[in-house]
Amino acid sequence: MGISHVKSITSPSLFAMTAQANIKIAEERIYLNIDGAVHLDSGFATAGGIVCDKEGNWIIGFHRFLGKCSVFDAELCGILDGLELVQRRGYDQVIIFFDCLQVVKAILGSSSTTSNSALIRRIHNILSQEN
């Protein structure tokens, strides 16, 4: 699977994952910025993000209301939605920025036995697809 992660030098709480799903349509690298959030009082969650080119120009944005879930699930949903979006648009190289080391470890881990395993498997499936 073409995936790795690095800790940002500019922000100690920002992590980036480089994902290279072998889609082979577009050669230009894009940047996917993701965030998931949960309202503390209600427990309702949202996830969203933006896709930018190498100059930082906005390409497209997205968001989704998730209902009640954990921040961990919200981050995973944001990553999954973002990867599906860039895949549909034909990009083959994406650097994903988000702020949850626990999610990086879960995605890079070989398997998950938590309630998040279906989301992680779907992310792995997208990252391993070849055309």
UniProtKB/TrEMBL annotation:
Residues 33-128 form the RNase H type-1 domain. SUPFAM superfamilies: Ribonuclease H-like (SSF53098). This is RNase H type-1 domain-containing protein. It comes from Gossypium stocksii. GO terms for molecular function: nucleic acid binding; RNA-DNA hybrid ribonuclease activity. InterPro entries: RNase_H-like (IPR053151), RNase_H-like_dom_plant (IPR044730), RNaseH-like_sf (IPR012337), RNaseH_domain (IPR002156), RNaseH_sf (IPR036397).
